[in-house]
Design a protein that fits this description.
heterodimer, A: mainly beta, Porin, 10% helix, globular, B: mainly alpha, Cytochrome Bc1 Complex, Chain D, domain 2
Amino acid sequence: MNPLKPGRRTRLSTLRRAGTCALAALGLFAAAPAAHAVPSFARQTGADCASCHVGAFGPQLTPYGIKFKLGGYTETDGKEGKVPLSAMIVGSYTQTKKNQAERPAENASVNKNLALDEVSLFLAGRLTEKIGAFIQATYDGVGRSSALDQVDIRAAHTLEIAGKETIVGLSLNNNPGVQDPFSTMPVWGFPYTSSALGFGLGGAGTMINGGLEQRVAGLSAYTFWNNLLYAELGTYRSLSPSMQSKLGAGRADDPGRLGGGTNYWRLAVFQDLKKQAFNVGMFGFNTTVQPDRNAPGSNKFNDLGVDASYQFLGTRKHVGTVNTSFIRERQTLNQLFDAGESANLKGRLNEFKLNASYHYDQTWGATIGRFLTTGTSDAIVYDGFAKGSPNSSGYIVQGDFTPWGKDASWGTPWANLRLGAQYTMYTKYNGAKTDYDGNGRNAKDNNTLFLFAWTSF
Amino acid sequence: MKGATMKPGIRLKPALLFALLAVSLSFQARAAGNVEAGKDVFATECAECHSVREGKNKKGPSMFAVVGRKAASIADATYSDPLKASGITWTPDRLDAYITAPKKLVPGGKMKYDGLASATERADLLAYLATLH
C-alpha cells in the first residue's frame, strides 16, 4: 500500500529515513491508488455489486452506491445475521519499457515483476441501525508488512428538512478524502489499482493526495439534502509516532504534528436522473505541519480542488463515465526554508486528472485517463528531478473483464473477480521528457504494463 | 366435513375468476405497454432494489409474480408498517398509482423512490411486470 519506491526517490527517501523533513514524507509524493471491493456490503443489502459499482466491481460508485455510503453503510435487506467481513487479494505482473535503475523494492527485480500486491481484510457493513464501518487491514506483499489501511466509520441519520429527505452524519476516518462518495478525490480516482512496482503518476503529489493517509485521525460532519446538495466540514489530528507504529505504519515516516486549525471541507451538487447522473463540486484541505515534534517550525499547505463527474447509466447495458478533478496546492515552507531544505519559501503544486470509461454489460470495461502534475520548481525540495521541477504527465489506458457481480451471476455475492491490463504512458516524468534523472533516462522509459487479477469475497 | 371443506373452495372460484377478469380488463383499459421497453425501464428505475428472480429479495421484495399479489405478502422480505397495513392488492391500477407517487399511495412507506412521471414508461413497465410469473 505504501507508494514509496526507494529506487527513484533518492534524496527524499533519505530524508524520510532521517525523519527530519516532513515535507518529503507529506506532500511531495503522489499516493498509489488503493484497491477496494467489499462484497459484505452486497451480502448486507441483497444487492449485486453492479448496483453500487460501475462495471460491477469497486470502487467507482453509482448513484445507488453513493447513497449507500452517505447512509452510513447501514442499509440492509432486513435480514439478520449478516457478518460484515470481507477479504480481497490483488496479484499482478509489472513490466516497464526499460529496466529500472534500481530494484523498486527489496524483493523485486529491476523489471518483469510478479507480485502479491495486497491481501486485505475488511470489517465493512452495518454495526448498528445508524452506524456502519469500512475498516481495512492490509498485508502489503511488496513491502512485506501489515498495517491498518483505510478507515471510515460513519454514523448517519435521515430526517426531513424543508420537506425534503436529508441525511446528516459523521465520519471518523484516517485519510482526508476517504470519506468522499464521489470518484474524483485522489483516494478514489482512476486508476483504481496500479502497480506498486512502477512509477505511479510521478514523484510529486499534493497533501490531499495521500500525503497523510493512515497517519492522522479526522472527524467530519456532513449533510446530504434532497439527494441534491452535499456539504461536509471536518478536522484532523496527527497520530502519535507510537500509535502509527502500533497500527503498522511505522514511526520512521511520521509526517509530524498537524496544526490545530487543520480543516477539510467539501461542497457538491449531485443529480441522480436514473438514466444518467452527475456531480459538480469543490473541496479543500488546509493544514500546517510541524515536522520535528520537538522543535518549533512548521510548513503550511492549502489544497483547493474542483471536480466533476458524469455517468450515463441507461439500462446498465452500456455505461459511460467521465471524471475530472483539479487540485491546486499552495505551500508556505517556513520550516524547510529556514532549515535550508527548500530553495523557495512559497510554492505551488497542481494536479489535474481526467478519465473516461465505458462498460458493456457490466462486464467488459475500457478506461482512458490523462494525468498532469505541474508546480513551482525547487532545486532542493525536488532534488533529483530535472531542473528541480515536479512536473509529470501522461496517459493511462485500461481494459478489464469482470465476469461476475451481477444479479444472476455465478457465486454472487461471494465470487468477485476483475482481470485487467493497464498501460501507463509518460510524456513527462519528474521534470522532463528526456534525461529527467541526469543519467539519460527518458520519461517514456518508465512506460508500464500492469496486468492484474483482483478478487474479493 | 367433506362438504364443508368443498364449499369455501367453490365460493372462492368465482372471486378468483372475477379478480383475474378485473386484472385482464384493467390491462386492456390502459394503453398497451411494450414489454421489451418495460424491461429497460425496470433495469433503469427498479433493478437496484428489486430482482425479478423468484425468491430473490433485495432491499425491496422480488417482483416475480407481483401483479395480483397482496402487498407485503412475501414472508422473506421486509416491509414498512404502513404498507403492511395498506390492504393493497397489486392490481395494475394500484401498481400504476404506486409507481407514479409511492408516498402518495402509501404515506410513511420506506421505498425511496420519487416516482415515474411518464405514463408511457409506466405502461411499459407494467406490461413487463405482467410477464413475470
